[in-house]
Amino acid sequence: MGLDLFLGGFGLWSALYLVLDITIRVIAVIVVPRNRKPTAGTAWLMLIFIQPAVGMLIFLLIGNPKLPRKRRKIQEEINDAVKAGVEALPNQEHQPGAPTWFNSLVELNSNLGALPLLGGNTARLIPDYDGTIAEMTREIDTAVDYVHIEFYLVAYSDKTEEFFNAIGRAVARGVKVRVLFDHIATLRSPRYRQTKRRLNQVGAEWHMMLPVQPLRGKYQRPDLRNHRKLMIVDGRVGYMGSQNLVDRTYLKRGNLRRGLKWKDLMVRVVGPTVDALNVIFLSDWYAESGEIIALRLDMAEAVPEGTPDVLDCQVVPSGPGFDGENNLRLFLGLLYAAQKRIVITSPYFVPDESIMYAVTTAVQRGVPVDLFVSEEGDQAVVFHAQRSYYEELLKAGVRIFMYPAPYILHSKHFTIDDDVAVIGSSNMDMRSFGLNLEVSLLVRGASFVEEMRGIEDQYRAMSRELTLEEWERQPLRSTVLDNLARLTSALQ
Considering the entire predicted model, what is its pTM? Predict the structure, then answer.
């Protein structure tokens, strides 16, 4: 009798489990693909069908690729304020001779990110990692009004100590210093508590970006991150690019054991575009602090008339606070517009189908494409996902150059033809397109592209070219790992 009851109970639990399993699968088919890319939807459904309960739990935790409605509302308010400010600006004078496609691309960026193309700028690339921190430190020492600092990762160490000291000197002079850093990225740094303590000691006002603190009512999908890197001093000079405010080893045991060092590229900008960079900072400041600081797009003066190498620049923000993937659309527009040459530098090249078609189509149109990546990766899953695209790229005719270990080529930029370039924080991967808050700078000017081509030539001289013959000798285990990592990269 007891055994019969046990078996009956077991049968009941089995039936309930079967009903739950079928229910999860049916709900997933209805909910998961809605307004989601087919690749992402397929990857999620595969996970849920293999492990229904676990897959659905993970989907509930990280399945929404957008910021909470309140945060998106803030972004809409900011865009409206920027558009109103842009309408009040005098007509911009831009450099003549733009490609026929350039103005439509600028309009696309303006519609997506609200910020206009601004003329009268100069820009200078800074390829030296420690030299970048030293130069920004010297710039803080010139501040008289404010310093705005925003980096994905901020870490106090021997390499950044003087930067923090400069903040303290600025605050002592009466300069307002505001600092933003990504919560999770900095939390994972070995010096997290020391960094916060040091910011308090030097008198900076600081906030964490996208904090994951559910007990304090601050929560969103935990892997949505603010990946931007920029600094503005007094509205007269700005820095932006790929480098974080951290020792180039990132101070992590694994990096130190392997001898890894980051290679980055930053740009120093003077002119009206500095105001546009400041709009990005003030937008993020408002989103995290609730404090509204007047948004102005008419404070920074154009460089003096007759200044050589004057540039037209457009700041393009992107991320889950926007309806569209602004950076992806910008990159696609440039890739399809190119007529002479495309050179891409991306440490994490994990493209979606649209980027792959654009890159391979460019080669088939007769436009040479060079891709610079690192020979060694710092993130295993991303590194293997990236490798899964090499065969298709090589067969299409893309030339792949691998920057040698122990350096991680972390720069993020690409050049189109003779006078158009993009530099910023955005990788060419699905995470940067859909999950990270990024900022890119579109630059038009032959002198700037020539300077960037010089950087690319340095990369080429240091790198070795990967051939299809070499790639086809990869062991089976590497192919399996690459393909598995590629599947996980689509979970957005």
Answer: 0.90
